[in-house]
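Continuing from the previous page of notes. For each protein in this section, the sequence appears first, followed by its structure tokens. Read the first protein now.
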Amino acid sequence: MIFFKNNWLWTLFNIDKFEYVLFDISDQFINQRDQASINSQKDSLNYNAFKKIKSNHMQQVVLEQKDEDNHKMYLLSTDWNILTIDINKKEEKFIVEINTYIHIHPDFYKNLFDPFLHFDLKKYVKGEILHLKSAKDQTHTKYNEQFGGKPLRLVMINIDNEIEKL
């Protein structure tokens, strides 16, 4: 979405004004479209389908360097949402884009997490990278299981009308 590219700083500042909806995380190559629809409906029943991030404050930040000109920043909000920002350098200019979706583990979504289990964003990112390199790697799956399983994906659907105009 071009808005998240051109106004990324404003977007990040006002992230707590955005409303998100659960978006099925099933793999379209594995599940048939009908099964994906059923999974999405189940998720809506098991979890509140709509969510807002409570604050624009972040408790952890991890920067992944993909190569010399491409980076991915992971941010963990104070209410356990994982946001990602792509930072790419093209022709001596940086292009920054906030992804339109967020992730949150099921236990955090339902407030069932054990406060003594420390969520380490760095371990999460390491698991993501290993999983992308080899789907057989179980590091990511084992880490996710501590927090209720594979993270839920939510996509932004609305911006609160009450945003103060500058």
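Done with the first. The second protein uses the same format. Note its length before scrolling.
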Amino acid sequence: MSIRSDMRTHYEACIDVVVGQRIAIRHERLNRRLRMLFNFLNLFGGSGAFAGAVAGNTVLTATCGVALAAVSALDFVLSPGERSWAFTDAAGQYARLRGRMDRLTLEELDHDLRALQALPGEILESLRYVAFNDALQESGRTDEMFPLSRWQRFMRSIA
């Protein structure tokens, strides 16, 4: 990998702001959909366990109970609801920076951008190029878009 000898431009910093916003939006959408999926599976599993208990079917009750416990554990570990709210907040902060980025100098923009990039939150690498392509497409630079792997295309479709 070569090191750039030219200076970073204001345009590149603006693209980075748009990419950051798109990453936050994609992650918010993914976590919101995971939260809805977990809620559905909890409701479905609970209903199945209840139906199994009423019908006296111990196999159905046990199966639904195990599935319900697994989904609840995943929901607890992944915390998609909390992450969804965190990424919603981050997307809003990027949007505010985006609204004033044309009035900022490169140094001011980079300073504010670094502060936003330091926000806690795990970024899925499979969504990074998706968000970058979103930003390029939004900026009218479809000629510079990266080809996406099969996994990245799948993630683009669900996030």
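What the second structure shows: The radius of gyration is 21 Å. Helices lie at 10-55, 58-78, 80-100, 106-117, 125-138, 150-158. We return to this in next week's lecture.
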